[in-house]
Amino acid sequence: MLNSLTTDSQADRTLLLVDDDEAFVKRLARAMEKRGFLPETAQSVAAGRGIALSRPPACAVVDLRLEDGSGLDVVEALRERRPDCRIVVLTGYGAIATAVAAVKIGATDYLAKPADADDVTNALLSRTNTRPPAPKNPMSADRVRWEHIQRIYELCDCNVSETARRLTMHRRTLQRILAKRSPV
């Protein structure tokens, strides 16, 4: 995969990975390093912005939702300091509105988690405007529903009653859903 990078200069292989899931970001950094990138990691918006402003990389992978704010703030900082930066936004809560917002402020691509290193590499190195292929294993309707419920639950600060009210669902039904494992 080293040959697929555009140039031989060290600066063109720099990669910023911003995600608050420490285990995920470490695994992705190792995988991307094997693919010829020089990864640097951050686990917050503040740390990501700091790296983006002081040492803007050629490529970046940014999680949309971080504990201290939105990954879109990091995307904006990257665009400000390095307009040619290839940026992929990752999220576990894929939605059309957030994908549009990410692309409008300068993201090159938008991937839903779980995305593997091959997906990320392909998105970073893609230079064409062709449509991506349909996913081989799309999420089931049950999984999409479960993800939506989890997102609303988190937005309500894990308040079951408020979440049930927003979802127009009985509180006990919601509690049963939350107690189950995620569908595949």
From TrEMBL:
One Pfam family of this chain: Response_reg
Residue positions, PTM 4-aspartylphosphate: 63
CDD domains in the record: REC_RegA-like (cd17563)
InterPro entries, sorted: ActR_PrrA_rreg, Bact_response_regulator, CheY-like_superfamily, Sig_transdc_resp-reg_receiver
PROSITE patterns: RESPONSE_REGULATORY
Keyword set, alphabetical order: DNA-binding, Phosphoprotein, Transcription, Transcription regulation, Two-component regulatory system
Residue intervals of the Response regulatory domain: 14-128
Segments crossing the lipid bilayer: none
NCBIfam families membership: ActR_PrrA_rreg
Name recorded for this polypeptide: ActR/PrrA/RegA family redox response regulator transcription factor
Source organism of this protein record: Rhodobacter calidifons
Species classification: Bacteria, Pseudomonadati, Pseudomonadota, Alphaproteobacteria, Rhodobacterales
